[in-house]
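User: My collaborator sent over this chain with a note saying "see what the structure looks like." That's all I know about it. Can you take a look?
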Amino acid sequence: MAIQTQDSFSGFVASEPQFSRTEHGDARLFMKVGKEHYRPEEDGSFTQLETTFHNLVSFKAAAEQGYQRLAKGDKIVAEGYVREYEYEREGQKVEGEEFVARRLGHDMARTRYDVNRSPRRDAVEQEAPSRAATAFDAPQRTQAAPSASGIGL
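Assistant: Without extra context I'll predict from the sequence alone. Here is the result:
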C-alpha cells in the first residue's frame, strides 16, 4: 500500500490568529503565515531572501486547538493542501490562494515546550476555545545562544 501524503507548510505565525464560526457552526481559524527563504552559496553559506506571506485557514478541531495554542511569532508546521479562490469586491475580481491546514502545530525543531501526556477528555466534554485556556503554557521567549549539542539516535 502506498504511503498517503499531503502538502506541508513550515514557517511562522505572522498575525494574531483569528477564530470564528462558519455558516454551519464549524470552528474556523485564520492567520497570516510567513515563510523565510534562503539561497545556498558556493562557499557553503546561505543568503536570506525576501520573506513571503500567505493565508492559512483550518477548521473544526484543528482550528480550535490551533487557536488555543498558537500565537503570533510561533514557528509552525502544517499539513493540508493549497486552495485557490476568487470573489468579487467592489466590482473587481479578486483571486488568491490559501493553505488549508488539516493538521497544525508547533515546529519541534524550532520550539521548546513540554508535552502533557495525560489522557484527553472526550470531544463532547471539551469546552469552547478560550484565549485564557491553561492547557498549554507558551514557552518563555528568550534569545538563547544556539547550542552546539545535537540529538543522537
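A starting point for your reply to your collaborator: Strands lie at 7-13, 18-21, 27-35, 38-40, 46-48, 52-59, 75-89, 92-106.
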